[in-house]
Amino acid sequence: MNDDAIDRIRKRLDLLRAIDEGRHVFGASGHEYALEPTLDEAAIVENERRAGVSFPPDYRAYLGRIASSGAGPYYGLRPFPESDDLARWALADPFVGDAAADDDSVMKNLSRRGGALLLADQGCGYKSMLVLVGEKRGQVWADMREEHGGFVFEGSSFFDWYEQWLDKALVEWAVEALPALVGVADPSASVAAAIELSRAPIERLADPNHELLPWETLYPISARNVISALVTLHTVQGRFDEAEALVERLVAAPGDDGEALGILARARILRAQHRDEDALRLADRALALPSLWHATRTAFLVEKEWALGLLDRHRERIATILERAKHTGNRFAYYDATWAQLEEGDVAGAVETLMLAGGKDGDIPSRAARALEVGEEIFGVLADSDLHEAGAKVRAGLEALARAT
């Protein structure tokens, strides 16, 4: 049992580390999917001695065969507490959560601990705890007392809790990454594997009658995001009839922008079918709606960029990227526009774009100086590309404006 779980965990961690380049999964920007060195048997025994209690078998296996801390649920797995913290956690005492339901002093006194090892910080004062003592030994519970929520069950075992996170992380990755994979004929091996692995948890979540896992009661992913991810998954894998059949469920799901999201889903289906003119018309139709949520408008601008690029309408594509940059204020959107302009040989336009990225306040020299700071990252990338000469001209142009009096 442990061997199978350890193999699954290792493979999925390796996969997430490879595919989640933007670190979009919650907590990944902190732990970066890094793992601290494992502990040998002597070190594990020493920690048990210091704790005054033995560890559950699957947690021992994790420490000895995968990592001592690092990548994991929420903000990652915490290392075993140092000596100064061991007394506070009182790991060999009765589990404090067993008393919480009928002992008000436990609920109100957050310093009351005992019987559970801190596994991970969830944020906002919440914690995931591995129970070491009593009837719940081996289970994972969330300490939600910060908001008077008591203790909430998270997993029947350490591996159960950890593997739930891996599935949830794959779904989070898919929600973010799948739209950009529509129409991609030959994704990398790791991305193709992740697409296939994400299918089962997305389909389960999209089933309106599915049984809730513990994490879903704590931090659910919205039904609309899940259905949207499943529509896009079907689209990416070329199952267009299945994708189209889900669009009405997407439109009817709780939340705003239902009509627009249905149009967005159909535009992506058309893009995957190489019906680029039809996809562009749908994107323009949606962008003309009287009110769109900020994120929905951003998604349609991206969809319009895709269509225009596939139709070789590059000037219009650049204008749309600039519209997205102004809409979001995101410097990477300004980078996209700068790069596209340089590919068209438009150095002056790239200078103007980075000036916009630097902001509108102040005179031209101060704006140019800010543009140089904002553009530092893209200048570094340009210097190592075929566009290095054009990038150098943009930098020189901004430097001249920054020196102007």
Task: Supply the key terms.
4-stranded antiparallel sheet; mainly alpha; SMI1/KNR4-like; single chain; 405 residues
Task: Describe it.
By secondary structure, this protein is mainly alpha-helical. Among the domains are: 2-163, SMI1/KNR4-like (3-Layer(aba) Sandwich); 331-405, no CATH class. It contains 21 helices and four strands. It has helices at residues 2-19, 28-31, 41-51, 57-65, 83-89, 96-100, 104-108, 158-181, 189-206, 214-218, 223-236, 240-252, 258-272, 276-287, 294-310, 314-328, 331-343, 347-357, 364-374, 376-383, 388-403, and strands spanning 116-123, 126-131, 140-143, 151-155. It has a four-stranded antiparallel sheet with strand order 1-2-3-4. Helix 20 runs antiparallel to helix 21. The longest helix has 24 residues, at 158-181. The chain starts with a helix and ends with a helix.
